[in-house]
Amino acid sequence: MQFEFTTATRIYFGAGELRRFSPWFKTGGRHALVVTGKNPQRAEPLLKLLKENGAAATTFSVSGEPQIQTVRDGVALAKRENCDWVIGMGGGSVIDAGKAIAAMMKNEGDVLDYVEIIGQGKELAKRPARYLAIPTTAGTGSEVTRNAVLASPEHRLKVSLRHPMMLPEGALVDPELTYDLPPDITASTGLDALTQLIEPLVCLRANPMTDAICLDGIRRVAKSFRRAVENGTDAKAREDMAVASLFGGMALANAGLGAVHGFAGPIGGMFSAPHGEICAALLADVMEVNMRALRERDPRSHALRRYYTVGRLLAGNGHATANVGIEWIRKLVSDFKIPRLGAQGIKPEHTDEIVKNAMNASSMKANPIALTEAELGEILQRAM
Questions:
Q1: Second label for 272, Cα 20 to 30 Å away, from 59, 92, 155, 265?
Q2: Overall domain count for the chain
Q3: The domain spanning residue 167 has which CATH number?
Q4: How many CB atoms lie within 10 A of CB 105?
Q5: Are 227 and 343 contained in the same domain?
Q6: CATH number, domain at 297?
Q7: Which pairs with CB-CB distance under 8 Å and at least 24 residues apart come from 288-293?
Q8: pLDDT per position as a tens digit, 125-147
Q9: What percent of the chain is helix, strand and coil (3-state, nearest 5)?
Q10: Neighbours of 60 (CB within 10 A)
């Protein structure tokens, strides 16, 4: 057996952790570029702490999912204001934008020189600027991953800027920052977190360390998902979902993902659909088609047994089947009115292009079995 496991240099977790973090701001740097979401006011507590500790700050707002041009604009602002470190405070899009900006502040050339598929895929030559990631959602786990997902509208694709040095120097996970998330975002991001626990558990590159955190994360989602959506100030439920999101990020960074994310990248590049909603719409159908393909072509696969484990954990029943877990997910999607892919503007005539792009996606390579074009098309049609 061989595997490796890497994550952020330091992880700081706990309710109220942001308030206790003041000493770090004295040593982070002289002038921080603070990357925020479309509502920069959510970063006011952070900006206040920076000011109290004598650190200058310039804010950079990211509206929606980051694009290649977003990174260029952020780097230009950081250099113009003489920023020497970066803090990303927001959802996965903000955290990813911050990672990419920190990388390009220290490396020569254009971001396109370094991204996959549409660019040259060059290796980073220099370590990124110091970067602290502070998530305000519980879904992507981007605070502990080594890549930044960027959209290129002209190519109608989402691609990654990826390098081990892009793992944040610090990840500060404070569940209190998620208390004010509305139920719909809590639900869609929570299902993204669940996807990022199930896919690494069943994927081809699973290892004992990622297994352990995936199993614990799935238990937490099963116990606390509904409570977090229905009562946003339930401290224990928010803590469980924050841990699950963190564990999902650690797992995907060290094992891989699967067909859900193989689809999510191309769909996200072609349509302005939230990533969490895409994953939620696809997860149950991917699980079902994967299981059928495994029974037909690889019945001794470890992934089949693990799908049964997922079913038992989600149902809280030691005798539940994998199908019970699939129905548990379908009911969540239905109960919390998460839209199907058709509501995102995806139509049957888009199937061939999406399937073609999905088959080339890096996430698809770790799926527990190679799915045929027909099987991928079936998943997409079902999820509409």
A1: 59
A2: 2
A3: 3.40.50.1970
A4: 22
A5: yes
A6: 1.20.1090.10
A7: 288/323, 288/326, 289/259, 289/371, 289/375, 289/378, 289/379, 290/202, 290/258, 290/259, 290/367, 290/368, 290/369, 290/371, 291/322, 293/369, 293/371, 293/375
A8: 999 999 999 999 999 999 999 99
A9: 55, 10, 30
A10: 24
Residue 88: closest CA among 101, 103, 78: 101
Residues in the chain with pLDDT < 50? none
d(CA 150, CA 68): 6
Torsion, Cα 310 148 174 202, to 10 degrees, reads 10
**Terminal Cα distance for the chain, rounded:** 40
From 177, 200, 231, the end of a domain falls on 177
Query: Residues 250, 145: one domain?
Result: no
- Confidence (pLDDT) at 272: 86
> Which residues pair with residue 12 across a beta bridge?
172
Q: Are 364 and 262 in contact (CB under 8 A)?
A: yes
pLDDT score, position 40: 86
Tokens of 335: 């109960």
State residue 36's pLDDT score. 97
Q: Please, are residues 271 and 345 in contact by the beta-carbon 8 Å criterion?
A: yes
Residue 165's alpha-carbon distances to 54, 89, 216, in angstroms, are 28, 20, 27
Q: Which domain holds residue 121?
A: 10-177
pLDDT of amino acid 318: 85
Q: 187 and 165: one domain?
A: no
- Prediction pTM value: 0.96
